[in-house]
Please model this.
Amino acid sequence: MRIVVLSRSQKIYSTARIVEAIRQRGHQAVVLDHSKCTMRIEQGSPSVFHQGKEVTGVDAVIPRIGASVTFFGTAVVRQFEMQRIFSANESQAITRSRDKLRSLQLLSRAGLGIPKTMFADHSRNAQELVDMIGGAPVVIKLLEGTQGIGVILAETVQSAKSIIEAFLGQDIYILVQEFIKEANGADIRAFVIDGQVVGAMERQGKAGEFRSNIHRGGKGKLIELTEAEQLSAIRATQILGLSVAGVDMIRSTRGPLILEVNSSPGLQGIEEATGIDIAGKIVEFVERNAHTKRVKDEVGF
Model:
């Protein structure tokens, strides 16, 4: 098979590992920078070009779309889908997961555990937002933040009010969430592929840091999930329509609470913590489903 990996650089650890896994299984790996793609949309013949050259002979796509280029990146994925090419994550699911507010709304409606979250479009009721969440401390998150960037812990009511008023006064949308003290600065990353948890790690923030992201200096270690945590992670990916995802959760006195579902989860932390060939499992998933899609196309299903 000829498998396209959509990534800004093949030097990124996750991209390099996926390319390695593709080649180990006897397939051809092609890394395309989606920001350098062009799409031609015409009657009955959607095409993708990369640096002026048409991309042909593709059997499957593995998207590694950065949050800063979600709109254009998912448009490229969708163009491949218009050619009836299998994608490890569908464009609509990626878009859905990148919208933090919409994701939480969908997870909440489905009855999954999430931290209490407030969202508003005005700053004059900052005190009310804090009160409705249960008081300080609270976690304030930018809607567009990634890898722990734009996540602030406000330890007092006054600091929370100041931060909320500052952001909303500049028309910057934020989420205000309850702080789960019993998590002790740790969270869980469950890696889900095709409806199964294939690996999980606990991430612990460094001393003095409540954010546990690996990119913020957090450390990961192998853990075994409870049945409730496994079910929550799998159900979250199903609700958002993702086949390959990293589900971030925290443990609380009322059970697992989902923080975020990542459609392009990094592989380095989870592979190092668990010793599991996650990249290989992604490629195995693509092998199974790209073949199934070809068969369905051939018989007209």
